Automatic annotation (TrEMBL), chain A:
Protein name: G-D-S-L family lipolytic protein
Superkingdom: Bacteria
Keyword field: Signal
Short name of one Pfam family: Lipase_GDSL
GO molecular function, one term: hydrolase activity, acting on ester bonds
InterPro entries in the record: GDSL, SGNH_hydro_sf
Organism from which the protein derives: Marinilabilia rubra
Span of the signal peptide: 1-22
TrEMBL record, chain B:
Signal peptide: 1-20
Membrane-topology annotation of the record: Multi-pass membrane protein
PANTHER family: OUTER MEMBRANE PROTEIN NMB0088-RELATED (PTHR35093:SF8)
Subcellular location: Cell outer membrane
Keyword Membrane assigned: yes
GO molecular function, one term: long-chain fatty acid transporting porin activity
Domain of life: Bacteria
Protein name: Hydrocarbon degradation protein
Family designation: Belongs to the OmpP1/FadL family.
InterPro entries reported in the protein's UniProt record: OMPP1/FadL/TodX (IPR005017)
Keyword Signal appears in the UniProt entry: yes
Major subcellular location class: membrane
Amino acid sequence: MIFRITYIFAVLFLLSSCTKEADVPTPKNGGADFSSFVSLGDSYTAGYTNGALSRDGQESSFASMMGAQLMNLSLETYSIPLLPEGKSVGSSLEGEMQLKVTTGGIQPVTTTGNPELLTDPSTWINANGPYHNLGIPGARSYHLVAPEYGDPNQGVGNFNPYYARFASVPGVSTALSDALAVERTFFSLWIGGNDVLGYALAGGEAETSGMGSADITPVAAFTQSYAYMLSQLTASGAKGVVGTIPAIDKLPFFSVVMPNMLALSAEQAAAMDAAYADYDAAAQQYGFEEMDFSAGANFFVIEDEANPVGMRQIKAGEKILLTARTNITVAGWGSEVPIPDEYVLDENELQSIEEATNTFNSIIENSANQFDLAMVDLDVLMESTQEGLMIDGNIYSNAYITGGVFSLDGIHTTGRGSAIIANAFIEAVNEKYGSSVPYVLVNDQTGIVFP
Amino acid sequence: MKYLLLTVLCAFFTLHQGFAEGYQVNLQGQKQTGMGHTGTGLLLGPSSIHFNPGALSFLEGDVMFSGGVSGVISQNSFLKEQPSLYTGETDNPVGTPFSVYGAFRLSEKLMLGLGANSPYGNSLSWGEDWDGRYLIQDISLQAIFVQPTISYAITPRISIGGGPVLAFGSVDLNKALPLQSDEGDGSVNLNGSTTAYGYNVGVFVKVSKDVSLGVNYRSKVVMELDGGDATFDVPESFQTNFPDGNTFSAELPMPSNLTIGLGWKATDKLLLALDLQQVGWSEYQELNFDFEENTAALEDSENPRNFENTMVYRVGAEYSALEQLKLRAGIYYDETPIPSDYLTPETPGTNKIGISAGVSWQLNDKLSLDASLLHISGEERKDGYAPLNYYGTYNSSAWIPGFGVSWTL
């Protein structure tokens, strides 16, 4: 009898010991060696967010997050050229944007910031390298191989102080040479966004092939610098991952102000028709389209040099820059006066951007194949944020502020957006090399912070 | 040989496909719990009010009472979808489902009874900051059923019985909202209670001297909750979108149960039991929170559940070791009602095996002490909730000791 009881309890005990928590698998390196990791790129690699570079942003760039995840494998150190705690500086020396409750509702407000971090070389940290995060806000493909890009002797406006502040030898070193000085086993290279973005941010009022700050980079310059970087980075046998350029016109910066957001009452529409009566008369005479206003949503009036009168109504699909928004409200842009050219991307300009993006992306893709590297198609990710991306109980989209992916500047990502990008890079790496680098927890990162 | 049996059981336990039970609680009588929660075809005391009201008039005695309480010590764990190093673990409060039953005889053929128990409930706490906090942080679901019962022996072999069920239900849950301020995520608390009705009917047949058969149907009870409190904690700039004093309505079904049970007195000392139980979980298709006041930022919350009907298979045995001592053991296999891609951390169900043991000590001819110990183990389940894209590997287990008394005049 006693034996029976003992037996029953033995069964129970043994069965209970059968149940256990799932074992946490040990991350695998697969065919890659992650013991030394460098990341080259632009503002996304640097962690520029909310219109400025800040320490929080640097620590939550997609590249820094990748570095942190690789620490779970064999990576020992990942050094970031950090700004001091609590300070920020944007490319026009302003501070980071914050959401504030204003008389006009909840709005992004630009803070004062810490311009000295870029303008005062005594704050620079050139001697503290080597750095593994070599992201330079504003950098284009060829900037990563140009020594003068970090040379203060070029004079203000002719060099990039974001690089000069941490370059190993300003004026001599380049992001690439700094990367090569590290005994790297793995690298990320995501560059090319600014090769088209500069043109887009200037409203397309620049050359479609040129070396100016608002031009689209010439294909030859892109090809040469890209191929050179990959050949150098892989020379030691290092493996890596590259990213393509997403369709930048899907950024909130170009889609917040929609072409037909001119709201008019019946009286206002009649007044607009009256105000543009001369225009319509000219249109009839010369055979181009008349202005058309009615009660409800209307297309904005924009400058267009190609039009005989120098203006027209914007068409569906054309883009207005976020920076035009204030003057649309306070200065009658788009209604009383046309929105200036440099705040509009028209059909032709959008086509130039798309063509250049496609050309650069095919160069990136061919190079990734040639050097046998993992590649992330960022356009696929951008497309999915357009539709809405459900991740761990929250939906993300490219809607401005409410979407959660893009920060208050409408161009750069929030911490959560960076985590989504980091996971896309990790996925591509795992797939290519058979590794199992763990994903970043998106819910652990900061999104849009509301007051 | 015995070691081999243990090994086989153990292997069955870890390898067998699936085992869960939604939010139903199988602890409605200490004696039955000790026997794998069989009892539809048995005469184990006034707890028949729950298991099969048809059996009540066949019980020996004129006035009887039984009551007991169990302590549910449960644990759930989560490993996020790979590749990830994230693990979560619940810190569940100890649940204390109870049952009390009393009955008295009006005539040789007619008995009246009253029962109160808690056949449904769920208590899970994953923590405020865990990774799945936008799905659930913690939930406490309770239901108390009160059932007046009448049972009548139509013939010396066939008895029927039944009674209305009055149910008191309450829910209290917290989840995080993806609206961040400097203090972190926002959150919502949903809290409310309600009453609802159902019924419980059964028939009991003494097939032969040694064999008895019972059929029991407990109706579904739909808890319709109106005017529950919806309390939001959101960033200040969102407060106008989440007005104070908002309320919600929601509906949660307690599923029906159809059980066929068999009792067989195999020897003078050994009683065997078998129960086949169908649970009408398909009633639970969605969990919707309809807020009294909707705003641009606050829409009604619609959450598909898509549960499916399940079967529970139970076997149990009672061995009269001594005149005063009865030993019990049982095992059951409980299918999960939750289909693939609808597994939430709020009810992380999986196919489960329950193994139980029990003991009764007859203190005198009126009073006995009853105890049971149940261990429930869920099969490891790698699944998730598609509408919110949250996946991982869930494990669950519970130890449930219980104690009760039975008194018969």
